[in-house]
Write a structure and sequence with these properties.
Length: 266
């Protein structure tokens, strides 16, 4: 198969971003390291099982469960130390939302093992907090896992996904990247790419994607706008433009996210 200059450019951009991150100490398709700090007043965390946890406002009746799908080089504990995720999550927690997260194999790119862990997380959270109201939120790479799970019949009641700097698919141009191949055991199958799904699998769903036009990590053909083009006729896909590069702090809009989940069906 002949590789076009555009394909080479897409792969090169990701590899350059990885190199820059390694040099600068920042994560790619995920979160940036930040100094350790304590949770804000009234925010507590619960262990839900091995490598699974919840963050919530104490003494509030759960209004719903928001499942967090973390990005690359993260493990779902970002709310302990990164001000961006905390800025995003606190308005939700102050209004009764329980944020749950899992390690999910680290840099999984939505592989099957990660989805099994997220299913276990959801089951444990529902048992612990006694609510069936469920919404998803994802960061970068985690959006692939969120979309794959959202398309499953068992999660048809999940009608809302918030995506921050979302990677919405793994097209052929990305499947040869070594760290994506490694996540999938050497071969990335078609089912790894939500952009190949039949549109009706997302019919009636609601999406709110915070993205930047100057994102140098997520290729345009696998980002927020590509998803809107593919599924916008059957789903409600809202695009909110933020500033800066990938996972810029302006993309973590907690108050806006609260308004989004507040408008979802109960």
């Amino acid at each position: 198969m002949t590789t076009t200059s555009r394909q080479v450019g897409a792969i090169y951009a990701i590899l350059v971003a990885l190199l820059v991150a390694a040099v600068s100490g920042c994560s790619v398709l995920g979160t940036k390291p930040a100094p350790e700090s304590e949770q804000s007043s009234g925010i507590v965390s619960d262990e839900l099982g091995p490598n699974m946890r919840a963050y919530r406002q104490e003494n509030l009746k759960p209004a719903g469960i928001l499942v967090w799908f973390h990005g690359m080089d993260s493990d779902g504990t970002e709310f302990d130390h990164d001000p961006r995720q905390r800025h995003f999550a606190e308005p939700l927690m102050r209004n009764g939302w329980v944020i749950v997260s899992a390690n999910a194999g680290g840099n999984s790119f939505g592989n099957d093992a990660a989805l099994r862990e997220y299913r276990a997380l959801i089951g444990a959270a529902r048992t612990r907090y006694g609510t069936t109201r469920l919404q998803f939120a994802s960061e970068s790479m985690g959006t692939v896992a969120a979309l794959r799970l959202m398309a499953e019949p068992a999660y048809r009641n999940v009608n809302g996904l918030i995506g921050i700097s979302p990677l919405t698919g793994i097209p052929p141009t990305l499947r040869g990247v070594d760290f994506i191949e490694a996540a999938w055991g050497g071969t990335v199958p078609d089912r790894a790419d939500p952009l190949t799904f039949y549109p009706q699998r997302f019919a009636g769903k609601r999406f709110r994607f915070y993205y930047s036009t100057t994102d140098t990590v997520v290729p345009s053909g696998a980002g927020a706008r590509a998803f809107a083009i593919r599924f916008g006729k059957v789903a409600d896909v809202e695009l909110v433009e933020c500033r800066g590069d990938h996972a810029d702090p302006t993309c973590y809009q907690g108050d806006d996210a609260l308004a989004f989940v507040g408008g979802a069906s109960r």
